[in-house]
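Quiz preparation item.
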């Protein structure tokens, strides 16, 4: 009987071990492909995030922040992997969990600080008129021009998907059909386009250390 039980336990243990080995090998291979900027590998990672993390972010941050959280974790993970910061490729999903947890902590801390700085309604300053000052109009135009410059620096495909979705307000279904994308490819392309736009914007908006931006910051303190 003991010998029979050992024969039952042995294969089960070996089978479980083999499945774990295969899974770790898969994540390790996926990391290598992401480092090589393999589109299918990044699409697989994005699909995993969309499958397993929406409820986690929804529960921690609320439904309005779920999409932003998924995009942030995806881009942060890809960026860290491509920089070689993941020393154990087979632990990719554990690495993702750490990035997701840190993002949630950052957002909660930001929300707490924001609430702490809120002014009670009875002490709030009077609501200004809807008219913009000359300085505000100039700053608004400066930002608009910089946004256009960012769009011009995007790749044609990234620019097309953003223009279709945000400027022309086409539906996701129409964009997928006309650009030959499935749902996952569309979401990934749009997310990467937004990420590229944000990176370009971060570099360009540092130019707002101009006199106009300085004046705007000063006026905001009064």
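Solution:
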């Amino acid at each position: 009987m003991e010998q029979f039980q050992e024969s039952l336990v042995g294969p089960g243990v070996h089978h479980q071990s083999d499945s774990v080995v295969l899974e770790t090998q898969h994540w390790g291979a996926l990391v290598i492909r992401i480092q090589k900027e393999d589109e299918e590998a990044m699409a697989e990672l994005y699909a995993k995030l969309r499958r397993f993390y929406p409820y986690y972010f929804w529960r921690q941050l609320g439904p309005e922040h779920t999409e932003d959280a998924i995009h942030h974790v995806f881009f942060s993970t890809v960026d860290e992997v491509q920089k070689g910061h993941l020393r154990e490729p087979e632990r990719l999903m554990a690495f993702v969990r750490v990035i997701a947890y840190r993002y949630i902590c950052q957002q909660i801390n930001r929300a707490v600080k924001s609430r702490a700085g809120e002014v009670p309604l009875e002490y709030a300053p009077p609501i200004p008129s809807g008219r913009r000052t000359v300085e505000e109009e100039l700053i608004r135009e400066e930002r608009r021009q910089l946004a256009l410059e960012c769009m011009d620096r995007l790749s044609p495909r990234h620019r097309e998907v953003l223009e279709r979705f945000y400027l022309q307000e086409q539906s996701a279904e129409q964009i997928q059909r006309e650009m030959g994308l499935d749902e996952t490819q569309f979401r990934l392309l749009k997310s990467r386009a937004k990420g590229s736009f944000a990176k370009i914007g971060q570099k360009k908006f540092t130019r707002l250390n101009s006199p106009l931006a300085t004046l705007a910051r000063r006026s905001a303190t009064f």
